[in-house]
Design a protein that fits this description.
The complex is a heterodimer of chains A (168) and B (335). With 168 residues, chain A is α/β, with parallel strands linked by helices. Chain A has helices at 4-21, 35-47, 65-68, 99-111, and strands spanning 28-32, 54-56, 87-95, 116-125, 136-141, 147-152, 158-163. Chain A has four helices and seven strands. The two termini of chain A are 22 Å apart. By secondary structure, chain B is of the alpha/beta class. Helix content of chain B is 36%, strand content 13%. Chain B contains twelve helices and nine strands. A five-stranded parallel beta sheet of chain B has the order 7-6-5-8-9. Chain B has a four-stranded parallel beta sheet with strand order 2-1-3-4, sandwiched between helices. Classes of the chains: A alpha/beta (168), B alpha/beta (335). Chain A binds chain B through residues 57, 59-61, 65-70, 72-77, 79, 106, 109-112, and chain B through 28, 45, 48-49, 51-52, 55, 58-61, 63-66, 327-328, 330-332, 334-335.
């Protein structure tokens, strides 16, 4: 498993370059519960961003609600600032199918109309089901079928390869 | 002390025990017919879910796509504005399609025509019924007869139950007061005709409220009300002493067949909540009312609109609580 600290170093460098190139001083960082919030917190700190951070719980926007029902313990989404015309740095731990990001984008747009949304992920893996790509990526990983990658945290943060029992 | 056990009450309640109907074999909510018999865990889960929906008001789009494509029928056999509109808004904020049907009370008072109405609506492929009916047990009746996969929410049946009202009251109390075990709560007024009071007492017992009091004249109390685990007071002055929450009930004049009361004026003199009377309660005592309030009958305007009143917050929270219940019963159907 890759060292989280070095992944975060790389993400911070990519983030700096990305927003510098576009002449954006400071985006609003928004993390997706739970792992994305952990990563977003560290990344925001490394970047020295001072604007308050947003947190999204996308449970109400999932596309599998009618199959698996209410997610237990939905935490309220918190977006401390207006999103209209703002540049957003959306952060998640693992990019897999892209469905979480689809849900997060839908929720973001229910709060306002951002000027842009940039996606940053700690790990991207194969298996995309939607046209979603990250601009800032800590590591790319190839996983076997029935394997998943999980971020454990918040203290300390570590990545774990999980073998799924019966496919899913 | 409050007794934990719920006595078997001689309420008109047909058929199997409510929990056999309203819970799935794994204990999840499938219908919501009554608060009675629900576990503390499940009630807390409903309140927790409502908490996440209560935060939606800050969003530009006050809607989530959770129940997109579902059809919910508000089937009201009895007049209601607040309950029906908050159920309707709750459904719409979950992105469901809503149909409001107000059935004239004269043409449908017997079980058979209720069943007929039910079958016709089922034929339109609906997913949920929110039902209010003047007969106790109407929601149970529907829950027993609906197709599998359709949920029934009781929005008030006769004198029996009004579970979502009780849950939104619990939500309101929890929001302002936190832990129930330290609280003294007084329910004041027309307990006899009140399905709200019955549901509230069950909910408060489930959440292990410190002390539940009912305050009313003899003529407005059901027989053996003590069996529900409440302390009975016939004087407002004594009943309100040191309470943390006072819940005023509407005097249900439309349900009074006999002379339960000498006059409204006299009722107000004895049981109407005024600022002066409220002084014996704790200084931070919440004033609640399920609405619609009869000002000058059970509550003085100065109190209803006063600093301690959370009557309008109850209405706001009612939407979140109903959203929680609706999404829980719909989330369970295919599990």
């Amino acid at each position: 498993m890759p060292e989280i600290a070095s992944l975060l170093d790389s993400m911070a460098e990519q983030t700096r370059r990305h927003f510098e190139q576009r002449g954006i001083e400071q985006p609003i960082v928004v993390g997706i519960h739970s792992g994305g919030v952990w990563i977003a917190e560290v990344l925001r700190q490394r970047m020295g961003y001072t604007r308050p951070m947003g947190k999204l719980d996308i449970s109400f926007y999932r596309d599998d609600f009618s199959r698996i029902g209410m997610h237990p313990q939905v935490r309220p989404s918190e977006l401390p600032e207006e999103l209209d015309n703002e540049h957003i740095l959306l952060v998640d731990d693992v990019l897999f199918t892209g469905r979480t990001i689809r849900a997060a984008l839908n929720e973001l747009f229910d709060y306002g109309r951002p000027a842009s949304v940039t996606l940053a992920v700690l790990v991207e893996r194969d298996g995309r089901e939607l046209p979603v790509e990250a601009a800032i990526v800590g590591a790319h990983m190839e996983l076997g079928t029935g394997e998943q990658i999980k971020l454990r945290g918040p203290e300390p943060l570590r990545l774990e390869r999980v073998k799924l029992e019966d496919g899913r | 002390m409050i007794t934990a056990a719920f006595p078997a009450r001689p309420l008109p309640q047909p058929g199997p025990l409510p929990n056999d109907l309203q819970l799935t074999s794994s204990g999840q909510l499938r219908h919501l017919l009554t608060v009675e018999g629900l576990s503390r865990e499940l009630v807390t889960e409903i309140l927790d879910n409502a908490e996440s929906f209560a935060n939606m008001n800050e969003k530009a789009v006050k809607k989530v796509p959770l129940l997109r494509g579902k059809t919910i029928v508000n089937l009201f056999f009895e007049a209601s504005t607040r309950t029906r509109t908050t159920f309707e808004l709750a459904a719409k904020r979950l992105s469901a399609d809503v149909l409001n049907i107000n059935v004239s009370t004269s043409s449908a008072t017997k079980g058979e025509s209720l069943l007929d109405t039910l079958r016709n609506l089922e034929a339109m492929n609906v997913d949920m019924f929110v039902v209010r009916h003047q007969q106790s047990g109407a929601a149970h009746f529907m829950a027993r007869h609906v197709e599998p996969g359709i949920s029934v929410l009781n929005a008030g049946d006769g004198r029996h139950a009004h579970p979502t009202q009780a849950l939104l009251d619990m939500f309101t109390i929890r929001r302002f007061k936190g832990d129930f075990t330290r609280l003294k709560i007084a329910i004041v007024g027309d307990i006899l005709h009140s399905r709200v009071a019955r549901s509230q007492i069950h909910a408060l017992n489930i959440l292990q409220a410190g002390e539940v009091r009912v305050v009313a004249p003899h003529s407005l109390l059901p027989a053996h009300v003590e069996d529900l685990g409440v302390h009975v007071f016939h004087s407002l002055e004594q009943g309100l002493r040191d309470v943390d929450v006072v819940i005023m009930l509407r005097l249900q004049r439309e349900r009074m067949e006999h002379a339960h009361l000498p006059s409204e004026h006299e009722y107000f003199q004895l049981f109407g909540l005024t600022e002066r009377r409220l002084l014996v309660a704790r200084p931070d005592c919440l004033v609640m009312h399920p609405g619609p309030a009869n000002r000058g009958v059970e509550i003085d305007s100065a109190v209803a609109d006063g600093a301690q009143s959370v009557i309008l917050q109850q209405v706001t929270f009612g939407i979140a609580v109903r959203m929680a219940v609706m999404s829980m019963v719909m989330g369970v159907r295919s599990a």
